[in-house]
Amino acid sequence: LCNYNNERDAVPFFAQATTIDPNFAQGYAWLALALAVTFVLEAHAESLSAAMQAAQRAMTLDANDSTVHWGNALALMYSRDHERAGVHFDRAIALNPAVVQIGADRANWLRFNGRLEEALAAIDNALKVGPLAPQWFWAWRGEILFDLERYRDAIDAFNNVPQKSHIAYCYMAAARAYLGDEANASQALGKAKEIRPSV
Fold first, then answer.
1. 3-state secondary structure labels for all residues of 3-31
2. What DSSP designation does 129 have?
3. Which among 181, 164, 162, 163 is positioned nearest to 173, based on CA atoms?
4. Surface-to-core class of residue 84, CB atoms within 10 Å of its CB (0-12 exposed, 13-18 middle, 19+ buried)
5. Rounded to two decimals, what is the model's pTM?
6. Dihedral of the CA atoms 171, 172, 178, 182 (nearest 10)?
């Protein structure tokens, strides 16, 4: 999961899993995760609303599953309910600390809460898995570094993402602009518009 547009494609399959087995907690949890990421990429409010519904259903089915808490954490985070999201992130990690993706998403939660140095340390810890790290870990690192106003480092981080979203290109354009590199800023913005013309 979490390889940019793959989430949107995964939504109907997770939805089908919950139809086949309405008591499958992980099916609802993964559906919530996929819908939450789809919301970030497409900014459709109905995706976030559906993510919250799936996450809550998963919680009623199994409150002791790390993926269930992860799904709730992500849906709540993008709903800007950061306090409750933090509780679910902590519980998810306590239940299964080996899932580095949860720690990476928690790094983003730390960023949203203004705890930027903690966020950077958290994403760097997640990246210790080496070349097996999902590419979106680097995207989160880039966004954290951008917020820290470390624009060159942010660009370097995004350059580790081979399949960039329009959001990554927008960050790169802004970072280039802050560095006074208008030509490359314009180029990055152009790439963002190729992916999402409404940017």
1. CCCHHHHHHHHHHHHHHHCCCCHHHHHHH
2. G
3. 181
4. middle
5. 0.89
6. -130
Q: Is residue 22 scored above 50 in pLDDT?
A: yes
**192 token code pair:** 């963002």
Confidence of residue 199 (pLDDT cuts 50, 70, 90): confident
Q: How far apart are CA 156 and CA 141, in angstroms?
A: 10
pLDDT tens across 71-82, in order?
Answer: 999 999 999 999
Q: Which two tokens stand for residue 197?
A: 């013309």
What is the C-alpha to C-alpha distance for residues 103 and 116, in angstroms, rounded to an integer?
Answer: 15
**Do residues 1 and 28 lie in contact, with contact meaning Cβ atoms separated by under 8 Å?**
no
Q: Are 102 and 70 in contact (CB under 8 A)?
A: yes
Query: b/e for 61-72, b at 16 or more Cβ within 10 A?
Result: bbeebbbbbbbb
Rounded-to-integer distance, Cα 127 and Cα 138, Å: 8
Q: Which has the closest alpha carbon to 156: 142, 166, 174?
A: 142
The pLDDT of 29-57, averaged and rounded, is 94
Indicate the residue type of 173.
A
Query: Sorting pLDDT into bands at 50, 70 and 90, what band is 5?
Result: low
